[in-house]
Amino acid sequence: MGLGVVGGGVASALLQDPSTVTARVGIPVNLRRVLVRDRSRPRDIELPPGMLTANAEDILDDPDIDILIEVMGGSDPAAAYFRRALSSGKHVVSANKEVMAKEGADLMALARANHVSLLFEASVGGGIPIVGCLMNELAANDVYSIRTIINGTTNFILTRMAHQRTAFADALSEAQGLGYAEADPTNDVEGIDAAYKLTVLATLAYGCRFSPDDVFRQGISALEPQDFRYAEEFGYAIKSLAIADQNGEQVQLRVYPALVPFDNMLANVNGVYNAVEVHGSLCGQVLFHGMGAGRGPTTSAVLGDLVETARLVRDSAVPGGPRELSQHLGVRPIDALRTRYYIRLIVADQAGVLAQIARALGDEDISIASVLQKDADAETQSAEIVIMTHPALESSVQQALLTIGRLDPVRRVGNMLRIEE
Amino acid sequence: MGLGVVGGGVASALLQDPSTVTARVGIPVNLRRVLVRDRSRPRDIELPPGMLTANAEDILDDPDIDILIEVMGGSDPAAAYFRRALSSGKHVVSANKEVMAKEGADLMALARANHVSLLFEASVGGGIPIVGCLMNELAANDVYSIRTIINGTTNFILTRMAHQRTAFADALSEAQGLGYAEADPTNDVEGIDAAYKLTVLATLAYGCRFSPDDVFRQGISALEPQDFRYAEEFGYAIKSLAIADQNGEQVQLRVYPALVPFDNMLANVNGVYNAVEVHGSLCGQVLFHGMGAGRGPTTSAVLGDLVETARLVRDSAVPGGPRELSQHLGVRPIDALRTRYYIRLIVADQAGVLAQIARALGDEDISIASVLQKDADAETQSAEIVIMTHPALESSVQQALLTIGRLDPVRRVGNMLRIEE
């Protein structure tokens, strides 16, 4: 059977060792065309002459290509390619979180209507097989929550900040130097990448259409080394989590740096590793831990999907297909979140400050669980107060912080972080 | 479409909330017959009259039953039921590790020949979706190793012994009292259950027929509380691991209690939890952690397979089927294992003992990494010596222990455990 590939890396892996896939499928799986932007760029593996093309039609219109593999990224023109391929009876394997987050529901319906397969394991979690598991192995569960560390770049930066007490900017530079972060790190550090991935997971877990715009996002650039120190004193790590959880007829989707107790497995996911914890009605809590990115893990996911798809082609089989997205759940606004909070304030070093702050919190029905007041800085005559609250409503905390920010002795609100027990 | 169930528990779950499966599949999935040993036994859920039967033919010969679900356990008569069902075009979903370990390869071939599906996620790992992942999502990897904690009963007992310093017999009684261990605990504590599960995983991971007899087994009943104390002093937990790893053209399969460094995630899998760590050529190390047994997790796995199978029936689809078991790998004998060892000896409290022991080890090319000699027991005039070796060959260690056991001042070999870094 024939393959067309959009993007170079996986093509190289396929050519380097085609026997792996062929052995799994049982019949030869041949790479026919590879679409690249620049045909003259040097590549790891020399592709046979005539295999490279800069013209998508050479793949989309080739009737001998049964499966389109897409690893180029971005929603445009990938979505258009997918539509043409699926409509003309080609199966699609994709590594593209953006297109699946933005147009996945429609594309899955199109695949279904055309009796072809659309698999996208590599779009989320790299070597962690969470996409397939939500579609199949865990499909009988009502999913209470999915809590994830799903962006390796931010997890690398946060691990550095936690273990070396590095400032954010320095940890980011280091990540860029190692190739973990891009020159423009916005997508990673502002949680955009994580929001795409969370959208894909939530769509599958809840059988419902969600959009990246449904995700509340808070980035990690405002974190300071002392946040890690204080969190540690209270027994918590700081991790950027992407969370989906159901509450009645609503699902809440959120990406933010949160305090996680050290005895929780998510607190011990370090460096570029990812983790996904699914809490289901039947399976209980299942945790997946592995490499979330990189060439090997991505190739593992793409080729796993390819093997599955190629077996369908081999047997002239029709895919059973994923669940129909027939659920209609609302999106719960972040204001409705109820959790515990970590609040760090920089205040003037004078008497009575804490009383004023406590009153502002009390007025919003927020009760304090513990307080840490650090020695004053003689030079600036300021001190830091760290407050851990009991469970409180997000909207109340936001309101209280506005009030607190306006208090005379409060220099600024250093940080507000949510606690995920 | 129609279902026949062998065994009661899952049937109850299906009847209690049939909407879950129907919602995932999109068309009604109806339970038609349930085979039970004793029709008069009281059940959690009252089954409609006429649904219960004690005659397997009522299911196997019913042309309206598309899918056979088997949760009875044991290889006989399950294997015979499977053969009849698969041969007559029925799909099979099984939770049966024993039949899959002993006859899985033949049954998979039979399913393949009859273009029907045979899924068995619930046979290993309960709520951990490792079976499907090895068949599909991770299928493109060459698997270097699978290291697992795959028997919840032994992990519960070992966790108790580690944390409460309980004796084995007491921890076992407690497990029996809680329903985690059976009256005859042999299958669990001697590693038979783990060997079945490891056989199933290795067969899928290596695409090769293996038998439970290929698994080297050592149970946990000889462990004593001081083994946990000494291991801890060296920085290790003791866990019963089931391991498959490839070495050239051979795979070694082994189940035994081993020392695992505390900073390894497997060391922190406690109580009745299970974990599976797959080290693949592309995905790197992926770890799965979850509930390995119990009604919820088993139901999750069985219904997940059912949803996948029912989608095939819905679409009149032919399953792509798992990989053909076309590999021919040998089984590496335990004698060829090379690892580090923990050796606890009870010796007479007299001078020169350690020198004699060290000589016996040195004669077999075993070098000592560290030694712990504990204060003598005045009453018995004996002392305990704990030795951690550098990497050594199993056959040499066994030979050295024979020699050491015969030394005059050595009262007995307390324990020998392997170290898994």
List key phrases describing it.
homodimer; about 425 residues; alpha/beta; Rossmann fold; Dihydrodipicolinate Reductase, domain 2; Alpha-Beta Plaits; 3 domains; 12-stranded mixed sheet; 6-stranded parallel sheet; elongated; ACT-like_dom_sf (chains A, B); Asp/hSer_DH_NAD-bd (chains A, B); methionine biosynthesis (chains A, B)
Greatest interface = A-B, 62 and 62 residues
Strand fraction of chain A: 25-35%
Oligomerization category of the chains in this entry: homodimer
Structural class of chain A: alpha/beta
The third-level CATH topology of the largest domain in chain A is Dihydrodipicolinate Reductase, domain 2
Using the 3D structure, state the CATH architecture of the largest domain in chain A: 2-Layer Sandwich
Estimate the helix proportion of chain A, in percent.
25-40%
Question: Largest sheet of chain A, if any?
Answer: 12 strands, mixed
Tally the beta strands of chain A: 18
Catalytic activity (chains A, B): L-homoserine + NADP(+) = L-aspartate 4-semialdehyde + NADPH + H(+)
Keywords (chains A, B): Amino-acid biosynthesis, Methionine biosynthesis, NADP, Oxidoreductase, Threonine biosynthesis
GO molecular function, one term (chains A, B): NADP binding
Family (chains A, B): Belongs to the homoserine dehydrogenase family.
